[in-house]
Amino acid sequence: MTTLFTEVIETAILVFKLYLRLFVSIPVSPGELDAETNLAIGLYRGIKGLFAQGGIDNDYIDKLSRYISYTEDTPREQPHVVADSRPLPTWPETGDIEFRQYRLRYRPDLDPVLNELSFVVRSKEKIGIVGRTGAGKSSLTYALMRLVEADSGSIIIDGIGISTIGLHDLRSRISIIPQDPSLFEGTIRDNLDPTHQYTDDEVWAAINACQIADLLDIPTKVRKPKIKNPDKSDTMSKEESKQSSKIRKRHWIEGTGLDKWVKRKGSNFSVGQQQLVSLCRALLWRRKILVLDEATANVDTKTDQVMQSVIRQEFKDCTVLTIAHRINTIMDSDRVLVMDQGKVAEFDTPANLLARDGHFKRLVESMNLSKKQETRPFEQALALSSVVRLSTQWLTTAKGYGILYTMRYTPD
Ligand SMILES: Nc1ncnc2c1ncn2[C@@H]1O[C@H](COP(=O)(O)OP(=O)(O)OP(=O)(O)O)[C@@H](O)[C@H]1O
Ligand SMILES: [Mg+2]
User: Fold this and answer.
1) Which residues line ligand 1 (CB under 6 A)?
2) Domain ranges of the chain
3) Mean pLDDT value across residues 97-104
4) Which pTM does this prediction carry?
5) Beta bridge partners of 98
């Protein structure tokens, strides 16, 4: 009985705490709110169970301990806004990025995954980032967004150490397109401009630049949710029920263009189309820094090419960091950063990197050779010779010709 009493008191305190978070102005992130709401529902059921059965079930205890773990034991993020250290609304104006002796580890007891990183990316540079799996490429982007805080060292963007400002001020000024696109249910306009701060003309300009206008011509077909009518369902004849199901199937959400409906998780768009929508969003928002983390890993070569050409034309005044798994994607970058075991192994122009016998050259060769295995015998011979020729060609020709070589002899 004492245990039961303690549990009820404990639960009441937790629910009261949740109430404070919701209705009194205690800052709470959407993630926390979601977790706490789910747990509160669980707790409510638990309490109901307590009174109904006069006992405590395991599910309830599990939810309670998870609640305590999430709310008490989980480390908090740094403040979203630091009032006396806010960057200007125009920051970053140039998009210069500097990593200074930067070290990152995921937990204090783990080895660092980024180790004494020091490099400078100049304004408007297009940087390709490559390296073997686990080299620390994605960790670099997490560091930039402060998803994980620095163990030591610093990152400076346009003269401001990013650790000195609030997380919201930092994250809202950098655009990231990850491998898995994120679209949500709503109109395409809501997806591109959730806060409605751009004009229709501006949104259309971004849509046209990303070549997705065609996707918005046809209304989205969705099944109407089944409306249960207990009074009628019993009396409905077979024919009537068939007819009603047909009507349900034929339901469309009207709206084309900006009103085109996006289904949950963007399921009425292919992954490639979703990535183009993400790029369109980044284009509309016009941040000075754009980061792509294997954004084209799951899209076809044509979509990859469209994305690269949009980035070249529309983001020419921005600093762009592109983590890529296809070597062609980053061959026309201004410079390529080769990561190896959390360190900068090489950082130079593609032509200079190919001229020396280093990581990048070996990476290009291994990719060409692995592609060669997929090609026909005649193409295999050409591909093999292209590996040899490629390295000498890069020394003397402009980088654009080098890309043609790679593409010509190792077609997708
Ligand atoms: N959340 C995490 N907790 C602990 N270690 C992690 C975590 N995320 C990544 N790591 C480790 O950090 C190292 C770098 O991982 P990271 O994801 O940055 O590599 P990557 O170069 O992006 O690899 P890939 O090409 O496979 O995407 C790896 O050894 C990985 O196991
Ligand atoms: Mg990665």
Assistant:
1) 106, 113, 131, 133-139
2) 2-73, 189-288, 349-409
3) 98
4) 0.72
5) 120, 156
